[in-house]
């Protein structure tokens, strides 16, 4: 439903085509019928890259949050968490969107902040090490209340990945290199 709410066709994808194909890609992962499906779909160079985000990034972030709020299967869940992490870690905005005054990384971070409790829920759920670590790292990039983040770091210390427990991964906010 969230996927259908965005006008993908009118957005310019990072690949230079219309972002229409992203609706299909996202649907495929959200549907998650085949387990490996998620691993084969990458939105790098379409939605995000290590340097810039493209116009569909906020829409993709909204879809990721909607999927996480839903009961998607574990492989899809981790895929959407990864996608959200890539966009909140965005460093810049593509030239065309920047000319229109958009700050895509900032927009994605404020969207992710709306999913704050969802992300804390993911950390506390201890469902999988990958999902817990990714959710926590998204929080380190967006949570304005650092004291709360610190408390959760302590509460979840037993199952957080080492980099999150020690705070190693908040040192270079915004840089995702895994
Ligand atoms: Zn594309
Ligand atoms: Zn970490």
Describe the overall structure.
The chain is globular and about 45 Å long. It is built from ten helices and no strands. Mean pLDDT is 91; it is low at 173-178. 56% of the residues lie in helices and 0% in strands. The longest helix has 15 residues, at 74-88. α3 (57-69) packs parallel to α6 and α6 (104-114) packs across α8 (129-142). It has helices at 20-31, 37-40, 57-69, 74-88, 95-99, 104-114, 116-125, 129-142, 146-155, 162-166. With 178 residues, it is mainly alpha-helical. It has one domain (3-170). One zinc ion (ZN) binds next to α8 and α10.
What does the secondary structure layout of this molecule look like, with pairings?
Layout: H1 20-31, H2 37-40, H3 57-69, H4 74-88, H5 95-99, H6 104-114, H7 116-125, H8 129-142, H9 146-155, H10 162-166
The protein binds zinc ion (2 copies).
Shape: globular
Biggest sheet layout: none
Structural class: mainly alpha
- The overall pLDDT average reads 91
Distance between the termini: 31 Å
Number of domains: 1
Strand segment count: 0
CA radius of gyration is 16 Å
DSSP helix fraction = 55-70%
Number of helices: 10
Low-confidence stretches: 173-178
Beta-strand residue fraction = under 5%
Run of helices and strands: HHHHHHHHHH
Present as ligands are: zinc ion
């Amino acid at each position: 439903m969230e996927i259908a709410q965005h006008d993908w066709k009118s957005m310019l994808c990072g690949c230079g085509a219309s972002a229409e194909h992203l609706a299909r890609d996202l649907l495929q992962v959200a549907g998650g019928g085949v387990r490996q499906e998620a691993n084969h779909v990458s939105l790098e160079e379409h939605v995000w890259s290590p340097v810039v985000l493209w116009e569909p990034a906020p829409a993709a972030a909204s879809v990721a949050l909607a999927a996480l709020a839903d009961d998607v299967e574990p492989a899809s869940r981790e895929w959407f968490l990864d996608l959200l992490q890539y966009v909140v870690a965005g460093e810049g905005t593509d030239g065309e969107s920047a000319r229109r005054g958009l700050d895509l990384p900032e927009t994605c971070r404020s969207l992710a902040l709306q999913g704050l409790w969802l992300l804390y829920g993911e950390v506390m759920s201890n469902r999988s090490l990958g999902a817990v670590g990714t959710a926590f790292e998204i929080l380190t990039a967006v949570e304005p209340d650092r004291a709360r983040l610190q408390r959760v770091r302590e509460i979840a210390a037993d199952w957080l990945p080492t980099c999150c427990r020690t705070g190693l991964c908040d040192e270079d906010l915004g840089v995702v290199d895994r």
